[in-house]
Design goal:
Elements: H1 2-33, H2 37-44, H3 46-59, H4 65-87, H5 105-134, H6 141-162, H7 191-211, H8 216-237, H9 247-250
Helix pairs in contact: 1-4, 1-8, 3-4, 4-5, 4-6, 4-8, 5-6, 6-7, 6-8, 7-8
Amino acid sequence: MTGPIWLSVGLAVFLWWFFTGAILLVVRLSDRLGGRAPLWATLAGLPLLGGGALLVSLSLDDPSVTGIYAGFLGALAIWGWVELAFLTGVISGWQRDDCPPGLAGWARFQRAFATVGYHELALATGALTLTLVSTGAANQLALATYLILFLARITAKLNLFLGVPRINSDFVPVPLTHLKTYFRRGPVTWMFPLAITILTALLAVCTERLWGAQTYATTTGYALLTALAALALIEHWLMVIPLPDAKLWAWMLPSKTKTEGDENGL
């Protein structure tokens, strides 16, 4: 039953690349336009959120292959809109100033959290909502998809805050330029091996379930989750391995404006 596995893995990788690129493109264009363009871009993306919610609702009682794909796409759409709202600066945090020089410890963590607090609340609300609507449902693929993305995002943010050797700030948009001052480039901390261990264990569980899947639908579902877990793990390793991952999307984006120049990078 390798056919659905490779189809699902290929689709998951493509959607990960496509959704990321599409969001980065919209954000870059809104940066170039300036003014209220980021807000209008976020509002224009609301059909993505609504469509995702609709797909998830349709998938809950449909454990077929169609339902599996609907749940996966729905979760990605919901996640994508929240990320769009974050990158445009519409839903980020109540703190928008640079990190004061010398700030450390708990005070630095509190201030850093304040820069993304609303975003974290939005992500947590999405996770809670999907958990509630998926409880007892025949198809919980949407919830599983969202939770993998949520877990990977939390561990990635903590690593950027605590310190990693490689930080790609090329795609940080104008409204979030202050976030760069909260990143720390340096040796890995205890958080990196912990994140790698957690994500590797998650990948192992998904792979084991995929190996034991007996139906086309369950094979498809676990193949999608396995691919997503693998991508999350790779994204974390790219925080230490010097590979030009930004080139996956840089070619499709318009050039930066002067206010977004490399002088703002780390």
